[in-house]
Amino acid sequence: MLADMAIGVEAARLLVQRSAWETDQGRRNTYFASIAKAYAADVANKCAADAVQIFGGNGFNTDYPVEKLMRDAKIYMIYEGTSQIQRLIISRELLTQTKEEKK
């Protein structure tokens, strides 16, 4: 479980770096930014849920930071465009790229 959490966090970090790199290159990065946000939000929620499982009953106890992490992770799926909206943006960008390649 811990290894899967680390894999997800590192993959999300690389996606964010790719999005930032695209911006640094002066390119439009809507596609990569949406992928990074959707994936990172999913990973944050999965990691928080796994952390609650690891802590067992104490995962919901306010004496431990895990319950706050769970609440905070949920907001990433909503804030600045829901994960579903990010997926729509990604799909739209893919279709746009395909149209441009056919020209």
TrEMBL record:
Q: Does the keyword Flavoprotein apply?
A: yes
What domain of life does the UniProt record list for this protein's source? Eukaryota
Question: Which spans are transmembrane here?
Answer: none
- Do you know which Pfam families this protein is assigned to? Acyl-CoA_dh_1 (PF00441)
Q: Which residues form the Acyl-CoA dehydrogenase/oxidase C-terminal domain?
A: 1-95
Q: Per its UniProt record, what InterPro entries does this chain match?
A: Acyl-CoA_dehydrogenase, Acyl-CoA_DH_CS, AcylCo_DH-like_C, AcylCo_DH/oxidase_C
Q: Which cofactor does it need?
A: FAD
**Protein's UniProt keywords contain Protein transport:** no
> GO biological process: any one?
medium-chain fatty acid catabolic process
Alphabetically ordered keywords of this record:
FAD, Flavoprotein, Oxidoreductase
Q: Name one GO molecular function term.
A: medium-chain fatty acyl-CoA dehydrogenase activity
One GO CC annotation: mitochondrion
Q: Which SUPFAM superfamilies match?
A: Acyl-CoA dehydrogenase C-terminal domain-like
Family the entry assigns: Belongs to the acyl-CoA dehydrogenase family.
What name appears for this protein in its UniProt entry? Acyl-CoA dehydrogenase/oxidase C-terminal domain-containing protein
Q: Which organism is it from?
A: Biomphalaria glabrata (Bloodfluke planorb)
